[in-house]
Structure formats: structure tokens, C-alpha cells
Design brief:
CATH superfamily of one domain: Response regulator
Number of helices: 13
Oligomer: single chain
Order of helices and strands: HHHHEHEHEHEEHEHEHEHEHEHE
Length: 330
């Protein structure tokens, strides 16, 4: 597409697509309910190609007037996600910003709806917690939008990141089992998993097998509507003979696996040790039977705001890798 002689406008985009300016304006501002999916996709494609941005956003960013930050997060019913959201809101509020919180439910189309809707609100930056690949996200990354990726890395290349070394956490879980004399273990988790759960599982299996242990993977089909609770429960029901150690890709998987163990008459701990990664704060109240590698979700807020500040100052993309902790009950 040739570069226009004047800055792109709604009228130019509307004329190119043969639709009304009002239609383009609604879609550009995230209001897509009255348009077909095909038209929404075409309008967003042309917007991305021309580099059009709503004028109020451009003025706000140039003058640094906006104090709004959007957090797009998947599955707020997960205590780990809620802890990240609470920590980030507190850190942003302390720095003088207001946070919009959007639950994407791990669905690409919902993620895109929120991205465009938040852009229409002139947000100054985006915090994407456990994001998924989507056309809108790819467009935002290509445009250089100030985005900090949390827990899952940028799926389209290097970028600002805050999280932990999940593969190392999985390897440390394997070491915990080995130190307890456990030589046979099962792994429960989603299939396909996110980069987070996949790295944890691969780190555990590699560390356990390198020591000479035997690992049995029991992975459950996963989709955007799958909960880790049900994945852990269904995988646990398929175990049959429970080994002395079971590694779960997340605390939520561990909760589901525990119910399956109880139904099978397996004592935890006792007959079997359940070990996971997350270290949710509610574990000591509701799941004292679960040993969990601790991820400091409640400490994510300050590093996220630090990385956002670097992006706003035009500094190179950086990352913050936070340290995980070993479980007290392993």
C-alpha cells in the first residue's frame, strides 16, 4: 500500500473500504457489535497498515496527559492472576495512575476487543498477563505500542517481560522429589499448554529423567474454556495406580488432582506427594496438603510499573525475572 500524502484519517479509511465514516469510527473505538466479523477484520487491517490512531489518543500521548493503564488478564478466577492484578493496581495507584482491568478468558477474539476498546480510551500503556496470539496483538506489537508482557512472553518476538523462570521452577520441583527418595512420578497438566505450563512440565521431566527417574505424563486436552481445576481432576482420574510423587503444572491443577486422589482413596500426603508451582496465598488455609514452588505474584506490581516507565521514556525493552521459592511442605 502506498504511503498517503497526508496523515491517515477515518474518512480515508472509509473511502478505501466503501463504508461510512461512522462505521469505521465505531470499529476503531472497539464498538464491533453492529458490524460483521469480516468487516471488523478489514477495518482493523487498514488501520494497522495506515498507522491511523484516534486523534484524542495522539494528543494525550504527546502531552502525557493520560494517567490510564490497561491490564488484560486471563481467568481472574485463578488466585495467581488475581494476586498479580491486585499488586499491579496498587503499584500504579501509588505512581499516580488508574488501571482498567479486563478479563480476556484466554480467548484471542476477546483479547482483541479489549485491546481496541482500551486504545479508544487513550490508555498510556498495556499490561498483558498470560496473553495469547491474536491479530490485534500482533498489530499492536508491530506498531510499537507500550506493552509489558507478564508470565507469558511476547509471542511475536523479544519484548518487555516480567515473570519467573518456569523451566527452572519445574527443575527445582524434580530436585525436591529426588531429595525425598521419590524415583517414580506422574505429571498432570493441559495439552496443549501455555508457555508457562509447558516450561514447567519440560523443566520437571528433564530434571527428573536426567537423575534416572521415571516420569509418566498424563495431560488433558485444553481449550480457552478449560479450567485447570477440571484438567487436574480428569488427569488424576486417569492415573490408575498413583505413584509416590505427582507434579502438577499449577496449583489449580493440583486442587483438581487432590479431589481425584480423595475419590480414589489415595492419602495426600502419605500415599502420594502432590507438588505444584504457584504458591498461592490461600494454600496454607485451604490446601495444606499441597507442596508448591512459590511464585511471588504479589510482588509483580512494582517491576511491571518500572518496565512501563522505561517504555514511556523510550528506553530499550527490558525484563525482570523474579526469584521463585522452594516449598516449605515438600
Amino acid at each position: 500500500m502506498s504511503v498517503p500524502d497526508r496523515p491517515p484519517s477515518l474518512r480515508m479509511i472509509a473511502e478505501q473500504l466503501g463504508v461510512s465514516v461512522a462505521t469505521v469510527s465505531r470499529i476503531a473505538n472497539g464498538e464491533t457489535g453492529r458490524a460483521s466479523p469480516a468487516l471488523v477484520q478489514e477495518v482493523r487491517r487498514v488501520i494497522a497498515e495506515t498507522g491511523y490512531q484516534p486523534s484524542h489518543l495522539g494528543r494525550a500521548l504527546r502531552r502525557q496527559e493520560t494517567r490510564l493503564v490497561a491490564m488484560l488478564i486471563s481467568n481472574l478466577d485463578n488466585p495467581a492472576m488475581a494476586a498479580i492484578a491486585a499488586s499491579t493496581e496498587a503499584a500504579l495507584r501509588a505512581a499516580g495512575y488508574v488501571m482498567f482491568l479486563c478479563d480476556t478468558h484466554d480467548a484471542p477474539e476477546v483479547q482483541d476487543e479489549y485491546l481496541y476498546a482500551m486504545r479508544s480510551q487513550a490508555v498510556r500503556g498495556y499490561v498483558l498477563v498470560t496473553s495469547v496470539r491474536s491479530p490485534g496483538l500482533e498489530s499492536f506489537v508491530a506498531s510499537g505500542a507500550p506493552i509489558v508482557f507478564v508470565s507469558r512472553r511476547n509471542p511475536y518476538g523479544p519484548g518487555p517481560f516480567v515473570g519467573v523462570d518456569d523451566a527452572r521452577a519445574g527443575a527445582d520441583a524434580a530436585e525436591q522429589f529426588w531429595a525425598k527418595g521419590i524415583r517414580e512420578a506422574a505429571v498432570l497438566g493441559p495439552d496443549p499448554g501455555s508457555s508457562v505450563t509447558s516450561d514447567r512440565i519440560e523443566g520437571f521431566c528433564r530434571g527428573f529423567e536426567e537423575r534416572g527417574g521415571r516420569v509418566r505424563r498424563v495431560l488433558q486436552p485444553a481449550s480457552s474454556t478449560s479450567s485447570h481445576l477440571s484438567i487436574g481432576y480428569q488427569a488424576g482420574r486417569q492415573l490408575g495406580d498413583w505413584p509416590p510423587g505427582v507434579f502438577c503444572a499449577s496449583d489449580m491443577v493440583g486442587y483438581g488432582a487432590y479431589r481425584a486422589a480423595c475419590e480414589a482413596g489415595v492419602t495426600v500426603p502419605g500415599d502420594c506427594v502432590l507438588l505444584s508451582v504457584d504458591g498461592n496465598a490461600i494454600d496454607r488455609w485451604l490446601a495444606p496438603w499441597l507442596a508448591s514452588i512459590g511464585v511471588p505474584h504479589a510482588d509483580f506490581g512494582s517491576p511491571i510499573v518500572e518496565v512501563l516507565g522505561e517504555l514511556w521514556r523510550g528506553a530499550p525493552a527490558s525484563e525482570r525475572i523474579l526469584a521463585h521459592s522452594l516449598p516449605h511442605r515438600a
